[in-house]
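Exam review. A common question shows you a sequence with its structure tokens and asks you to describe the fold in words. Practice with the pair below. Do the first one on your own.
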Amino acid sequence: MTDIPDTAASGTGAGTDTVDGQPSLKAGAIGFFDALVIGLAATSPAYSLAAVIAPIALLAGVHAPGVLLASFVPMLLIASAFYYLNSVDQDCGTTFSWVTRAMGPWFGWMGGWAITMTGVLVIGSLAEVGVVFGLYTVGLDGVADSTVAVRTMSVLLILLMTMICVWGTDISARLQNALIVAQVLALLAFAVVALVRVANDTSSLDSITPSLSWVNPFGAGGAALTGGLLLGVFAYWGWESAVNLTEETTDSSSTPGKAGIVSTIVLLTTYVSVAIAVVAYAGTSYLSDNSGEEEYIFALLSTEVMGSWDWVVYFSVATAAIASTQTTIIPASRTGLSMARRHALPKTFGRVHPRFRTPDVSTWWVAGIAIAWYLVISAISENALFDSLTALSLLIAFYYSLTGIACAIYFRRQLTRSLASLLLIGIGPVVGSVLLAWLLVESIGDMADPANSYSGQTWLGVGPPLVIGVGIIVVGVVLMLVWRVTDARYWRERPSVAPEREVSA
């Protein structure tokens, strides 16, 4: 029987220059603000909000801001689990490492696989949106209409962002600092102008006077709330990228976890305020009629709200997508590194560049697979690409739920120490996991109906998103079994319990 390695004791994330004789990640490369920015950038606020606001308005009407508020609850509860688990295990593999500690290697491996594949599914789409809206910003609409030009530039953008990731976490952080400031300022400018025009009754659409009742998620009804929550979870997803950089962050036992929690709060404020502005200016009928436009709803609204300054909104979505293209690579590459160090993947994925101190091999692998997926799935059809993004909710809900449950299991001996421990380490994360598990079941039911897919086609008798999501999980199980036969060292690890001294609520 083999216990799980103590990452802090072995030098992983402890500030040493080597791990088992190999170069380690660059300790102390970023601080709290950098980690916070990366967590925000990974969610791509402008892109995510643009992608979900119209579909949520179709379901919930004026209560769309309330649905985004409700979606925040499971995210905050899971963020609490990330904070406490990171406080005792500063491993860049996050969910993979923590679930392995608490629940064993089988669950841990699948958690790591889910994180890696979420990045693969979305990176290409993010790059494409960044390219298209970047072209809109500079007035090159004709080039944006060229499929060949857009896909070529999207691949080049992925390669550029990957190169920056390899060059260094501190370089990546400086780029993200600039991009997030530009993105948030542009979003706020859009929201302020929209609300001012509503107040002055100069909206070019059917504006509605904002009401406090809009933030009541239950006003939309049960079915609308369920569907809206599924979209809301996608909008908040990605904040944990800050925790994947735990080994490269100053004060790694607390800073990344705090950055993750604060990022969810900042996202809540941004999402609800901008959603109120959008619903007030455009009205629910306009948003419902254009709910199929996804992230391009801001392209439609920008000229309506900003006039000749519409490029500000284009710029916001472009910077959001470009920033997220880079930061989405981080969780997948760090998880691959962590899995390789524990012999859960081939050793080559655990290589750290001796000069840049980043996981260069796993980073390039993530980019390569993401490019291949993007080109193949988009060649099938643009709708197939959107269907693959819909499948993300399965993987997101899966590994977030695992993390919340792992937190309560790992700290189970400490839950009765105090009321705070019971609520923050036990009940809170479990409730978050149950909510996400419920959404997972609901999403499976929705995805099974081909009518709910973008393509409207039937794959194997069900909707394409369900086939893609379940297919990825099945492939993961097969690869896990193959590697279990090839190298069984990781599977000798056994679940453990957090010592009493390790954490306080």
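Now try the second one, then compare your answer with the model answer below.
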Amino acid sequence: MTATSRLRAENLSVSFARTPVLDCLSAEIPDGGLTAIVGPNACGKSTLLKSLARLQPVGGGQAVLDGKAIHRQGSRSVAQRLAILPQTPTAPEGLTVRDLAARGRTPHQSALRQWSRQDADAVARALELTNMAGHADRPLEALSGGQRQRAWIAMALAQDTGILLLDEPTTYLDLPHQIELLKLVQQLNRETGRTVAMVLHDINLAARFASHMIALKDGRVFCQGTPAEVVTAPVMQSVFALPCRIIADPVHGTPHVIPE
């Protein structure tokens, strides 16, 4: 990696009730890549993602977006370049898929610039990319779990940013829907060039879909690199205390963890 990544963490420190969660953590999100952030429970994965998006106050260090500390930038300016989808987003009852996607256009609007053709086009494009155009007028509560996740991703895409952060996007989904959603994220990354970083728990799925991985342990980066560089038996033992063997996935050739 180089120091030219649009989004990076520089010596980030975060504590909750005097308990350190991130400890002088530094990491870069490679431009145009699909990064998976992995690690054991309570190691700081979601806190890192929120800190990169300026949703989490930090006690030390800084997140840097486009060469400038993110906390020194205006909210509207940041939201026009970076979108984040939290782990458990909520919406008012009765909101339709189209209405939800339209909320992604808020950073691009003002008192002098209300709804425009550009907004309508961005929403339509986001619904098409997520295969949700056919569900545009359905309320969110009428959708399956996988469809709801697609609807939320459509909102983030409608925001039309170059960087997209996803906090455990496969939570509450069964395995087929997890794979379907990760295929969508990978397709969006490859076809639109968006930089994507996501928190994932499943190491094998992370290794299959990500181009770059960051493994955290005790609030710090233990290692980072390609899936082949991160998903190794020594790293799994050190980070997860998991004795295992690593084989090549017989279908995709990516590293696959077999617990011993």
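Model answer, second protein: The chain has two domains: 7-81+161-259, 90-159. The chain is about 30% helix and 25% strand. Full marks require stating both points clearly.
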